[in-house]
Write a structure and sequence with these properties.
By secondary structure, this protein is an alpha+beta fold. The chain has a domain at 7-25 and 46-87. It has 2 helices and 6 strands, in the order ββββββαα. It has helices at residues 68-74, 76-87, and strands at 2-9, 13-15, 18-33, 36-51, 56-60, 65-66. Strands 1, 2, 3, 4, 5 and 6 form a 6-stranded antiparallel sheet that branches. α1 packs across α2. The longest helix has 12 residues, at 76-87. The termini are far apart.
């Protein structure tokens, strides 16, 4: 049995000058059953990063603001997504 867990920064979406970076949790479970392999997976939204010209903020799915620094440590791909936005 193998379980894989990842925190992922999804593709940014820009609307009216505001960019949203969704952050999701991916779970993939594969196991052997009677000589076959069965796999299942889930994708769960965790948070969103809001980027505008004046600010960068992160929110959990309840709408509460969370420390962006903490999210950057947990999900390094968010830092990469932010750097890509700056270089555009």
């Amino acid at each position: 049995m193998e379980m894989e867990r990842k925190l992922v920064a999804e593709s940014p979406v820009t609307i009216a000058g505001i960019t949203l970076i969704p952050v999701t949790k991916l779970l993939l479970n594969c196991q052997y059953i009677g000589g076959s392999i069965a796999c299942s997976g889930t994708k769960e939204p965790l948070s969103v990063v809001l980027v505008s010209q004046s600010t960068k903020r992160a929110f959990n799915m309840s709408g509460e603001e969370i420390p962006l620094d903490q999210l950057l440590q947990q999900v390094p791909a968010v830092r990469e997504a932010l750097e890509n936005l700056i270089s555009q």
